[in-house]
Amino acid sequence: MKKNMPVIQDRIIPADLVPIFNPPPLLSSEDPKVYCRILVGLAEDLQPVTVTEWLLVKDITDLNWEMRRMRRWKSAVLEKTSTIAPGRMSDDNTRALTAIRRARLEYASARGETVPPAPPEPLPPKKRARRQKKTQQQIDAATAQVFRDNIDFCDAVERQIATIEARRAGLYRELELYREGRALRRPSNPILDAEFSEAPRRLALEQGDPTGHPIDGAEADIPVTETHRTNDNDSIAQDQSQSG
Amino acid sequence: MTPSRKIRANQANALNSTGPRSLEGKGRARCNALKHGLNVATVKDSGVSAAIARLADIIRKQEHDSASDAALVIAETSVDLARVRDARAALLEPLFSAPQSGRVTRDPSAIDSDALHRIEQLQKLDRYERRALSRRARAFCDLARLPRSTRR
Question: Which sequence spans correspond to the domains of chain B?
Fold first, then answer.
């Protein structure tokens, strides 16, 4: 089921673009607020200005999210295939034993086997430490086994993550190049605009018109100089021909 | 050459064929072979073509007056990318929406093969994303090649 963005995103994204960002490509179990927080963080970091930059920021957010999802998937599969979830074990012996007991119960009931008897709760410290060490070793062995069983899957997921990461790096590069190009054109445009409007007016003033309105055909009579070039290559060629 | 008797028999049999007859049925049958529809050009979809045109117009106004082609490609590929990501999410939806509480609810090897199958499907979807991204990159190059004097 698709979920729309929370309100916070509408405030930072230009109104024209909100339909493009909604709904985000999320699963029903994923929280749109977390996605939104990542998007807001990236937007604050990258400071998009134009629509194109916003589109790139959205793509980077999506790819970040997909990488996160792939990692979640991998850990979910590993956890699902293990009888003991190592991440959930605590240092406290009692809680660890309870977790093991619960896992055993689930495992046995899933296989239709009889439930083993519960171990006695209070244990002497030495015995408790020994059992804890043994449990830890079992957990490590089980984790290694699970990883070995799912090595193909883990490899495929890691390759997928690497592809997404490469794509994300490409998008960052694209954003950088786009900005460089934009930054280059910004200072040059006012100068070129001024040259176009200024040259015919000056010529009209020189030819005796006090209002400065360009005379008909004035533009055609203006000698081609460096001040009213239309194209860099044309002007360079013109300069060369004049100097030659 | 096919004898006329056989042709007549074929034609008579064809009249008894059990294809869909109503418009609704025909509409459903038309989608039988549809997997994800990512090969179809987005502009042909009337539902999204208006959104693409609107986005392209915004990009053109911000970038360049004569950049309508590049702006259209950028808008179109953005929608394409969104479609690919939706397809990827739809592929993973059944896995993530399943209850995670019971740790051993299925045979581990079955989980593994299902996961591998889905990974393969994801890899197949990759090409559509790659194609959209390279199309957009080319559109950016076209945008950069526009004459400098009229750029904003």
Answer: 38-150
